[in-house]
Each structure stands twice: as C-alpha cells, then as structure tokens.
Amino acid sequence: MTTNQKIWSLSRNQLAKAVASLGYPEEFADLLAKQLGSPKAIDRLASYIRQAHPDSVEMIVDEMVSIQEEIAAWREKKVFREASEGYNTWLNSEERLNREEENTGELTAERTGGMRDLYIRSMSLPEPLSRDSYLNGLPVVKHLAEHGIEFHKQVTFFVGENGSGKSTLIEALAISQRFNPEGGTKNFNFHTSDTHSELHDYLRVARGVIYPKDGYFLRAESFYNTATYIDDIGTAHNYGGSLHSQSHGESFIALVENRFGGHGLVYPG
Q1: Are residues 64 and 178 in the same domain?
Q2: Is the dihedral of CA 72, 76, 77, 82 positive or negative?
Q3: 67-125 pLDDT, tens per residue?
Q4: Residues in Cβ contact with 263 at an 8 Å cutoff, skipping those fewer than 6 apart
Q5: Angle at which helices 3-20 and 39-52 pack, to 10 degrees?
Q6: What is the mean pLDDT of residues 189-193?
Q7: Which end of the chain has fewer CB atoms < 10 Å from its terminal CB, N or C?
Q8: Which letter does DSSP use for residue 243 in this model?
Q9: E strand map for 114-269
Q10: pLDDT-wise least confident of 16-25, 107-116, 137-146, 213-222
C-alpha cells in the first residue's frame, strides 16, 4: 500500500467511525468516501458529522455535495488564475513590448504604466433598467448610463451627497465580481436578508489584464454579520482573533492588518 493509499484509508476509517456513531452502516461511509475522493474532503465531512450530529442521511449527503461544489469552484478558480498569470507574463514580456514599439514607433501604454496595473478599468450600463426601478432616480446610475466610469488610478474614492448612490454602486460592482452581497471574500456564503439591488445584473465591468490575487468586500452596515460568520466557520485566527471581541474601529484595523496582503481588490462600502 502506497503512502497516499494509507492516508486515504485513515481518512476513510475516521469517516466510518463518525457515520457509525449515528447508526449508519460502514457501506454508507464507503460510498461517501468514494464520492469525495480526496482525504481532505473526507476529513471535512467526518468533522461535520462529529460536530453537527446530522439527524438524517439527506443532511449528510447535502454536506457532501456542498464540499464537492466548493472543491470544483476552487479548481476552476485555480485554472483561471494560472491561465491569467501565463497571459500576464506574456503580455508584460520585454519581447512583446519591444515588438509592439517597433510596429507602432512609440511607447506602449504598458511600458509607460498606463492602465496595466488596474484590476478594473471601467464600468457602464449598456442596457436600460426596468422603468419602475428606483435605481433610475440615483444620480450615479444616470451617470453610468450616459457616460460610464473609467478608472485611472489604483485607489478610487467615490464622493457624493447622501442618496446619490455611492454604496449602491460599490455593492453592485462587488457582486458583479462574485463577492458575497453582505461582505467578505468570494468564498463567504451567508446571508440574512436579500436587500441588495439588481444593479449588478445590468452592470458591464471591463477588467484589466492582471488578475487580482485576493479580494474583499468590506461592507460596514453588515460587518457584524460578517464577523459572526467568521467565528462560525472557525477562521477567526486569520483575523487576529474574534472580531466581536474588539470595538468597531479595532475590528476594522484588525481586518486590514491581518487579512489584506496586497495585490487584491478591496471594496469598502
């Protein structure tokens, strides 16, 4: 038996014990282990069973499917990131830049800095919203529809009167990039109430050639819920401890100091 087979067998045995503690046969554990495949995925399901004590087969299978979906999403993201990094390497190569300069007779935008380092280059509304949408009354939505918004710097501030649509715009931009509507990373999966607008469905976002390595939607109004979710999934140590154990301002500082590593998109709303 190889080392990998031994590791898989150990994980499978732990899952079998967890399943047996609920009164289910060992054959059920074998089925689950084969479906999950990797020892890490099997360990996750075994940990869920030990902690949650699900009272039905359906709940266990639902958790297994959830784990499989997360793994599939992670693999898809990894493939996209590797492809993006390969493209960026070629795009920023001296050979390509020199060739373009020879063809155009002038420095390229990449050579002079230009918009190469921007993760988001612009956003616009190519299609009108529904006539009865309250969004039509927001100044920022009117500006998007008529002119769009272009970004030229790595940090952008949105300034305007209350009710002008600043938070609505940032929310729509974050959701359009697959961030959780109530805050956190793209992997956060919780919600208390679907109060976000439909603006993200209409928003057209032009992304830069460089793919961000990280990202976070820092939504102040639901940050309490985000902090609770972080505690619930057991990752508070990544933030220097529970954010609930600090003041509101301290928790924001802890988030920035422990979670933001650079080379990413941050949407403070």
Answers
A1: no
A2: positive
A3: 888 888 777 767 766 766 665 665 555 555 555 555 554 444 444 444 557 888 899 99
A4: 212, 213, 214
A5: 20
A6: 82
A7: N
A8: G
A9: 120-124, 149-150, 204-207, 214-218, 264-268
A10: 107-116
Strands (DSSP E) found in 129-242:
149-150, 204-207, 214-218
Cβ neighbours of 197 (radius 10 Å): 21
Give domain status of residue 110, yes or no: no
Phi, psi dihedrals of residue 80, rounded to the nearest 5°: -65, -40
The closest alpha carbon to 86, from 209, 242, 241, 194, belongs to: 209
Structure tokens at 54: 């699900």
> Which residue range forms the structural domain that includes residue 148?
120-268
Confidence tier at 228 by pLDDT (50, 70, 90): very high
Six-digit token pair at 41? 């995925």
| Model confidence pLDDT, tens digit, residues 36-83 | 888 988 998 999 898 888 888 888 888 888 888 888 877 776 776 676
- Region 153-158: mean pLDDT is 86
Domain presence at residue 242: yes
Do 252 and 202 sit in the same domain of this protein? yes
Residues 59 and 188 placed together within one structural domain of the fold: no
Q: What do you get for the CA distance between the two ends of the chain, in Å?
A: 54
Cα-based angle 158, 163, 164 (whole degrees, multiple of 5): 45
Q: What dihedral angle (degrees, nearest 10) is formed by the CA atoms of 41, 45, 47, 53? A: 180
Total of domains in the chain: 2
Mean pLDDT of 233-250: 90
What letter does residue 184 receive in the DSSP assignment?
A: B
Domain boundary among 56, 80, 104: 80
